[in-house]
Design goal:
Blueprint: E1 7-8, E2 23-28, H1 36-44, H2 55-63, E3 73-82, E4 98-105, H3 116-124, E5 132-135, H4 152-169, E6 173-177, H5 181-192, E7 198-208, H6 217-222, H7 226-241, E8 244-250, H8 256-271, H9 281-290, E9 295-302, E10 305-315, E11 320-328, H10 335-350, E12 355-360, E13 371-381, H11 384-410
Parallel strand pairs: 5-6, 11-12
Antiparallel strand pairs: 1-2, 2-3, 3-4, 4-5, 6-13, 7-12, 7-13, 8-9, 9-10, 10-11
Helix pairs in contact: 2-9, 7-10, 8-9
Length: 416
């Protein structure tokens, strides 16, 4: 994919009835074009910031070749600035009031919102689906703010600008993945007004503390139906009887040797499937130092030798943990469940965590105390014929997902 040159989009619309300023959108060809302090200020003021949109996270992906044009992820950063009045007599733009990172994609890998069938339909009709424009955190199916900042008008201007830029450059489509509730509401309004954004509903499985809170792991297990509780207890016992111990490490407690062993396990998970891992050792080496407060690692050992590792991301001020990666060098029955679910759940309860997001898919998580949660993405297709067909498909899909969630809710693992 050829690098995309620096340019700027046209002005976004303004709401003159409410005194909304005119928003000028700028397009940058690298995250490095926006200072870390500026990005982080917008990130912190977003409704739902996550570590996966942190400047350190995204810039490490770019710097170490994980998300670059060579891997089919060409970064484009959009910033929204209040247009200066003519009497300002300056060409220096006002500070950005909102920003987002988009990626010009030559494939659909690493997104977790699957549109391969759309690409195949384009191909059958002799049209190019790629490149497409995607606003997302690469390889991270984590709901959260994608249009960063606190000014609603500036953030909505970015949503408009994504569509305008896609049309201007002749790309097939624009997509905003795993967006927050406010962004979904704007996309819903756009859909209702035939502005072209279409909503897609999906399901993940998250563990959440109830209002009364579980004081310890035993209390949590006691809230489950008897068969679910017994199965968890049996699975945990199998791991103990196999002579496995589990250690939790956080932040600076995680040594370079711990990171090396984790990466061996992580890479092995991909290698056994004949794939290359999305993330490399250099990426993890950098973010281990630039954002240490966000890392939580569980290491399983047997007879004094590490045999498996699971890496989680945490945001303690927001009391949220995300399950990310796991791998092993020795197979032990039920060890995956212990390292990726049970030990982290116990840690969450002991450390006052409210929410543990288990990642994409995985209905089996329900039997372990996780509940179905809606996730959303927004899509805009330039070709009106395909947009109409996809819109019909998504309407039917949303109905199917709603019925699926109702069915899952009826099968809650918790006592009635």
């Amino acid at each position: 994919m050829e690098p995309f040159g620096h340019s700027a989009s046209a002005h976004a619309p303004r709401d003159t009835a409410h005194g909304e300023p005119t928003w000028h959108l700028q397009v940058h060809d690298s995250l490095q074009s926006v200072s870390a302090s500026t990005w982080q200020s917008l990130w912190l003021r977003s409704p739902q910031p996550t570590p996966f949109m942190h400047h350190a996270w995204l810039s490490a992906l770019e710097r170490h070749g994980c998300a670059t044009p060579d891997t089919g992820w060409q970064p484009l950063v959009l910033t929204a600035h209040a247009a200066l009045p003519p009497q300002a007599h300056t060409t220096t733009p006002a500070p950005p009031q909102a920003a987002c990172v988009a990626w010009l994609k030559s494939h659909s890998h690493g997104e977790f919102v699957f549109d391969w069938a759309w690409a195949q339909a384009y191909e059958r009709h002799g049209l190019a689906y790629y490149p497409k424009l995607v606003v997302a955190s690469p390889f991270s199916p984590v709901p959260g703010s994608r249009l960063l900042g606190e000014h609603p008008g500036a953030r909505q201007a970015l949503l408009h600008g994504l569509r305008q830029l896609t049309l201007q450059e002749g790309w097939s489509s624009a997509h905003v993945l795993f967006l927050d509730d406010e962004e979904r509401a704007w996309a819903t309004q756009a859909e209702a007004h035939a502005s072209g954004w279409m909503l897609r509903r999906n399901v993940q499985f998250h563990w959440q503390q109830p209002a009364a809170r579980w004081p310890d792991m035993e209390a949590f297990l006691g809230s489950l139906q008897r068969d679910k509780r017994k199965k968890i207890q049996q699975e945990r016992r199998k791991v103990r009887e196999a002579g496995v111990t589990v250690q939790a490490l956080q932040g600076h407690e995680i040594t370079e040797a711990d990171w090396d062993f984790f990466f061996t396990c992580y890479a092995n998970t991909y290698h056994v499937r004949g794939q290359r891992p999305y993330l490399n050792r250099a990426f993890f080496r950098e973010v281990a130092h630039t954002m240490p407060e966000h890392w939580l690692m569980f290491t399983a050992s047997r007879q004094g030798r590490p045999v498996a590792s699971a890496l989680l991301v945490c945001d303690l001020p927001r009391r949220t943990v995300w399950g990310r990666h796991w791998g092993c060098v020795e197979e032990v029955p039920c060890l995956h469940f212990e390292l990726c679910y049970y030990a982290p759940l116990q840690w969450c309860i002991e450390h006052g965590i409210d929410r543990f997001e288990g990642g994409a898919q995985g209905e089996h998580k329900m039997a372990r105390g996780f509940s179905p949660v809606d996730t959303w993405s927004a899509h805009w297709l330039a070709d009106p014929r395909f947009a109409s067909a996809v819109d019909d498909f998504l309407a039917r899909e949303r109905e199917g997902v709603a019925a699926y969630v109702d069915e899952l809710t009826d099968r809650s693992p918790f006592k009635g």
